[in-house]
Amino acid sequence: MDMLRRSHLLRWLPHFHALHDGGLRRCPPEVRDWVCTHDSLTRRLRQKLGRGFTVRLLGQHWGLPGLGEAAHLGIPATQRVLIREVLLLGHGQPLIAARSILPASVLRYTRRSLLDLGARPLGDVLFAHGQLGRTDLVYASVSAACWRVPVQEQLVMAERVWARRSRYTLAGRPLLVAEFFLPSLFSGSFTASAAGDT
Fold it and tell me: Is the pLDDT of residue 16 over 90?
């Protein structure tokens, strides 16, 4: 079990799978559409929500990645990285939780712009970059037990939450972004509010 010590979201990392392993057949079509898209989730939410889209920074610190995260990045598990965790909100309601792993090499390359994001979305920087690459999109079905207790209490968690993790590169320098699609993203209230903003 890949335990996490300082995460605001997770007690341990879920096990991620390759898209072609067949497990996504259990994923509802409306969820699979979000898991498999290659578009920016930031752009997609902003298009649906307009000014109702915001980001809440839960925490950002230097620490060690999880073993699975280090392996996915191809770095030693003892290499310190910047760990950033946020919630993407629609009209104040959490829709997506995200955990990003940013090695020092990519922070130096961007001249610290990724270090100083604050409550700005990471996707705005990534998808505006001319040398952005993306490989190794994987998915997970996350059990309720993976989440920190405060997260379980504050967010309406289904038995399982679907997630994806992508390895991006900026001019060949890797970073990792995991996104967890919360039940509220697929609720009738989100659909109705999003329709009102388009």
Answer: yes
Buried b / exposed e along 95-129 (16+ C-beta atoms within 10 A): bbbbbbbbbebbbebbeeebbebeeebbbebbbee
Is the distance from CB of 21 to CB of 85 less than 8 angstroms? no
Which two structure tokens, joined as six digits, stand for 85?
Answer: 């965790």
- Tokens 């770095």: give the residue: 75
SS (H, E, C) 1-33: CEECCCCCCECEECCCEEHHHCHHHHCCHHHHH
Q: Is 194 left (phi over 0), alpha (psi -120 to 50) or beta?
A: alpha
Does the pLDDT at position 195 exceed 80?
A: no
Does the structure show a pLDDT above 70 at 194?
A: no
How far out from the chain centre does Cα 6 lie?
17
Total Cβ atoms within 10 A of residue 198: 8
Sheet holding 17-18, edge to edge: 17-18, 132-143, 160-170, 173-181, 93-103, 81-90, 53-63
Q: Is 161 helix (H, G, I), strand (E, B) or coil?
A: strand
Of 156 and 96, the one with more pLDDT: 96
